[in-house]
Write a structure and sequence with these properties.
Order of helices and strands: EEEEEEHEHHHHHHHHHHHEHEEHEEH
Strand content: 15-25%
Number of helices: 15
Strand order of the largest sheet: 1-7-4-2-3
Oligomer: single chain
Structural class: alpha+beta
Number of domains: 3
Largest sheet: 5 strands, antiparallel
Length: 518
């Protein structure tokens, strides 16, 4: 069937057919089909005039019986039909339904802002808010515990932390003696009426989790404040050098996340002038946050790459005694590499003269082996010009490729503190008179050392004064620091025990008590 438009009349020529006059009332569906319906939605008037047709029942519309889709108008007189070429006029009146246009949803500005973006800046505050911060909230007449508690609560309310960042920040606060455990009115608060009546400040105070003092002996206590002192730099050092590596081992993304989170908080403290008396200390703590990810990566690399090629050759020659088998070409090449590394290094001239005084290398031996902890106090490397000159001289002598430039790390004995009873503490050992020692390492390893780094290693000393690293045990960053608070992580305050102790007459009293509890 021909599809009719709903906008303008369409005339379709038909062949001569029976004289039929019909008025069809139908409602047009979306698909173009017509259904009989009483009403005036759509009127199709069909007038056909033909003559000399005996059977008027064969009147058709587009090849389909009229009876299938329409009804003949009552009162039509077939005798008055005349022969003509009929036409069909269709007029369609369509009710235009108003369609509501959906407006695109407005994007909420700042919905996904966390406050930890690289170029994020806190929203400006009004003069009244600035006056309140300076004269009331963070006035120096208030004690530091009150100011830093107010700062922490306001800071957390203005930042959107995910689970991992929250965990890191809570660990940082715990090291500083601040309790950030969950409390009442967190999550879905049961007292909805109280929350509905409270203003923004009251809601923040009700939902706050950061409090200074009054949380037990594991945290800062106002009654024992003489045992605590403010040290932003120390807490950051301990957090980034001990706490984060103990959780993540080595994870570069976690190191950057932790350092960035703490620096963001310190920036907030500085911007709001919370404690101006500790500004220098906070600036030093921010500097630790900047260098921490890089140094943690360097210590990880050193732990995997030390003792290095030179020290490995020295160990094989004088500990495994390959120096006694110089008739093997490989062993002789190792001896040449060892001698070139020593003689072309920045070691002192006295050490080199003593080394050259030994004509037979097979007579050299290890005279001392020990496990020691050192702190790097200086590193010495050859200039680029000197390296290039040495390489040219070796090429002329036919020893190209047998020298890898080495530098010197000057170290002195030190201690990596852990707080255990069976290990010495830094304040229990006097190392002020200890003499520095020199160790050779390749330049690609030398650049990864920083002044203040600590290494724990098994070292050997040869009879002509050269020392080498046999095995590396540990490498620590330059800002490594042990904090006594770390020992309080799993501490529980003792409580009175009303159970009797085991005795000769009743040795199983504890087991019986446990059975009773079950």
């Amino acid at each position: 069937m021909t599809d009719f438009s709903s906008s303008s009349p369409i005339k379709v020529a038909e062949e001569p057919m029976a004289d039929v006059a019909a008025t069809i009332t139908a409602s047009t569906s979306v698909g173009g089909q017509c259904e009989p319906q009483v009403g005036n939605q759509t009127t199709i008037e069909i007038e056909r005039r033909t003559s000399n047709l005996a059977d008027p029942d064969h009147a058709k519309l587009g090849g389909n019986d009229v009876a299938n889709g329409a009804s003949t108008t009552e009162g039509a007189d077939p005798a008055n039909t005349t022969q003509a070429i009929g036409s069909i006029e269709v007029g369609v009146d369509t009710e235009k339904k108003s369609k509501k246009k959906r407006k695109p949803a407005k994007k909420k500005i700042g919905k996904n802002v966390t406050g930890f973006e690289e170029f994020y800046a806190d929203a400006p505050i009004t003069p009244e808010e600035a006056r309140k911060e300076k004269k009331e909230l963070y006035d120096t007449s208030r004690g530091f515990p009150d100011r830093i508690e107010e700062c922490l609560q306001r800071y957390r309310a203005n930042r959107r932390m995910d689970v991992e960042r929250t965990m890191m920040f809570n660990k940082y606060l715990w090291l500083g003696g601040i309790d950030s455990s969950q409390r009442q009115f967190t999550g879905f608060a049961e007292d909805r009426e109280a929350l509905a009546k409270a203003d923004a400040v009251e809601i923040r105070q009700m939902t706050a989790t950061d409090f200074v003092g009054g949380s037990g002996s594991r945290f800062y206590d106002l009654r024992g404040s003489e045992n605590w002192f403010v040290d932003f730099t120390g807490i950051v050092k301990g957090f980034l050098s001990r706490t984060i590596p103990s959780i993540y081992l080595y994870d570069e993304a976690a190191n950057q996340l932790a350092a960035g989170t703490i620096k963001n908080f310190l920036n907030y403290v500085l911007m709001h002038d919370v404690c101006p008396e500790y500004e220098d200390d906070i600036q030093a703590a921010r500097a630790i946050c900047d260098i921490a990810p890089l140094e943690l990566r360097m210590t990880h690399d050193l732990l995997n790459e030390l003792p290095g090629n030179f020290n490995a050759i020295a160990n094989s020659l004088f500990t495994d005694r390959l120096v006694d088998k110089l008739d093997i070409t490989e062993n002789f090449d190792k001896l040449l590499m060892f001698r070139f590394a020593v003689l072309l290094s920045p070691l002192s001239g006295d050490v080199k003269k003593k080394f050259l005084s030994f004509k037979d290398p097979s007579t050299n031996k290890v005279v001392n082996t020990k496990e020691e902890t050192y702190q790097v106090i200086e590193k010495i490397k050859l200039s680029r010009a000197k390296v290039k000159e040495n390489q040219q001289e070796l090429e002329k002598a036919g020893h190209s490729g047998k020298w890898n430039p080495t530098g010197v790390i000057k170290v002195k004995p030190s201690i990596i503190e852990f707080g255990y009873d069976n290990l010495p503490r830094a304040d229990e050992v006097d190392l002020s008179n200890a003499l520095p020692e020199d160790y050779l390492v390749e330049e690609e390893l030398l650049v990864k050392f920083e002044k203040g780094m600590k290494i724990k290693a098994v070292v050997c000393e040869l009879d002509f004064g050269i020392r080498f690293i046999k095995e590396i045990k540990d490498v620590r960053v330059s800002f490594d620091l042990f904090l006594p608070q770390m020992l309080m992580e799993n501490w529980k305050d003792p409580v009175p025990n009303d159970r009797p102790p085991p005795s000769v007459s009743n040795p199983n009293v504890e087991e019986n008590a446990m059975d009773d509890d079950e």
